[in-house]
Amino acid sequence: MNNTPIAPGKYVEIxxxxxENDAEGExxxxxxxxxxxxxxxxxxxxLPAFEQALNGLRAxxxxxxxxxxxxxxxxxxxxxxVEVPKSAFLVDGELDESVFDIGxxxxxxxxxxxxxxxxxxxxxxxxxxxxxxxxxAGLNLHFTGEVLRVSDAPPAN
Length: 157
Prior knowledge:
Elements: E1 11-20, E2 27-31, E3 37-40, H1 48-54, E4 62-67, E5 81-85, E6 90-91, E7 94-95, E8 105-109, E9 115-123, E10 127-131, E11 141-151
Antiparallel strand pairs: 1-2, 1-3, 1-11, 4-11, 5-10, 6-7, 8-9, 9-10
């Protein structure tokens, strides 16, 4: 196993458990070793504070750290709640009623064609209020995990 420290320009693979607030908090996400999370360090693929917490660690090292709301996904933004006409959910001329459940995740496209993910927050007569905040907005995050690999490039598939 190589002993290269995590640094900008390195490919990093980790496994982790993400909880709200602290080690006893609600479990938000699990990324096990057999479905590890990989990213290029220093390329803006993850939160800057997340990178800082991992910087210098090596394969085999365990980690545990917290990210406060302001270092994670920020407070919930009221402007991220958008009223969308129900007609926007027409599929082949039919209204897709399955998306009109509170909490339903709905992929949508911006005017530029970028995909954004929203969650149905409220139903109205002819429209739906969709929350485009990051699912972890407004939360303090607590990560526990292990560095699985540090290399110069992602593995070839």
